[in-house]
From TrEMBL:
Gene3D superfamilies: 3.40.630.30. The lineage of its organism: Eukaryota, Fungi, Dikarya, Ascomycota, Pezizomycotina. This is N-acetyltransferase domain-containing protein. GO terms for molecular function: acyltransferase activity, transferring groups other than amino-acyl groups. Pfam families: Acetyltransf_1. Residues 64-210 form the N-acetyltransferase domain.
Length: 211
């Protein structure tokens, strides 16, 4: 089944929202961030609109990986997505507000997670020029086919072309993938969700790959 990387478009963002939701569904903290039964019926539409807004921001680069053997258009063929932000002389780093949360979301838990991750990034990178690999998502039905690795390599190509380091924050599922692609740990953040009954520790690692 041939896989192909193409730039993402606004029309792809609903499919990306679907992939994102499926990718995060097994995570233990998912039910804390969005309690069962609290998600609005149009949550995918709301998320897709948020992704379209992100796509149009300065310095944002987004790619999709499609399987051309899947019937349908490019959006329907998409099995993975990556989005990163280039912070350089043309687009210097400016702190951005977090995403607008849908109704029903646990705002306290979201804040706990996002603040810790944001502080970790600020400590590691500050306003230095870099590429921020903001997201990497693969449809769970297509995991194990190298989709994530292909998209990470696409980001690495841009890093080397621009001579900029890549920064990302990784949770446990993606940590080994990034290590294999030459990233190194430069910080870590533990989010305590025990208030909501979660006993498993949730770690995020700050990671950097130099060009």
């Amino acid at each position: 089944m041939p896989l192909q990387i193409l730039p993402s478009r606004g029309a792809d963002m609903y499919r990306e929202a679907v992939v994102e939701r499926a990718a995060y569904a097994p995570a233990p903290f998912n039910a804390i961030l969005m309690p069962e039964g609290q998600a609005p019926p149009n949550i995918l539409d709301v998320r897709a609109e948020g992704l379209r807004h992100e796509l149009n921001q300065p310095g944002v680069v987004s790619y999709k990986l499609i399987d051309t053997d899947i019937e349908g258009d490019e959006s329907e063929q998409a099995i993975a997505f990556a989005m990163w932000v280039v912070y350089d002389q043309d687009h210097p780093y400016v702190p951005r507000p977090g995403p607008e949360l849908p109704s029903g979301a646990n705002k306290e838990a979201f804040a706990l997670l996002c603040v810790g991750i944001a502080e970790m990034k600020e400590k590691c990178m500050g306003d230095k020029p870099h590429i921020f690999l903001r997201s990497l998502r693969t449809d769970p039905q297509h995991q194990g086919r190298g989709a994530g690795k292909m998209l990470v390599k696409k980001c690495i190509e841009e890093s080397e072309r621009r001579n900029l380091p890549i920064y990302l924050d990784s949770s446990m599922p993606g940590h080994k993938l990034y290590l294999k692609q030459g990233f190194r740990d430069v910080g870590e953040c533990l989010t305590d969700f025990s208030k909501w009954g979660m006993t498993e520790k949730h770690w995020n690692w700050a990671m950097i790959r130099d060009p």
